[in-house]
Amino acid sequence: MKRIITISREFGSGGRELGRRISELLQIAYYDKEIVEEMAKRTSLSEEYISQVTQQRPVMSFPISIGKSFYLMPDPLMEQHQSIYREQHQIIREMADKSDCVIVGRCGDYILQDLHPLRIFVYADMESKIARCRERGKEDPPLSDKELRQQIKKVEKGRAKYYEFYTGQSWGDKLNYDVCINTSGKSIKELAEVLVKLVK
Questions:
Q1: Domains, the chain
Q2: Which helix (H) or strand (E) holds 181?
Q3: Which molecular-function annotation in GO is an example for this chain (predicted)?
């Protein structure tokens, strides 16, 4: 049986680092930005654009009325967003079929549900997320705590809407995960060592 772990995470919770450390301890593949890189290779779209699209719900088409009838106009942008999701779905399936792996974000837990991955949701309190964001790198221009808090909330809102649009499930709902872990004030390295024991 394959060892597949999916990481869903709040922004600034350390989920990406946790996933990387788990993959290193288990000596299995790690996929995060690699998914976006592969999508860019297969399409004519930039990595930056793909990253942006996969962090927010597609814009819905608006109906127009002609007389007493309503029509939903074809929306090229909506179709493109759904095409990007289908490509992402295919790539994640291929990666999981290839070998044991850790997959971060991008609805991996839902896409691979038939393979019964260990589904982990990583969260933290706001102060911890702000501190971790500052440790990760300086903002340009520098952001106040209030601005950083707003940015974190914006990213998380986008992730939640994207996830809910494509899966029909609530992002962050404990019923959708096998493990929910609070990283506030904790060592990511030590948490990874504990989680690895669930997989071995």
A1: 4-56+74-199 (3.40.50.300)
A2: strand 179-182
A3: kinase activity
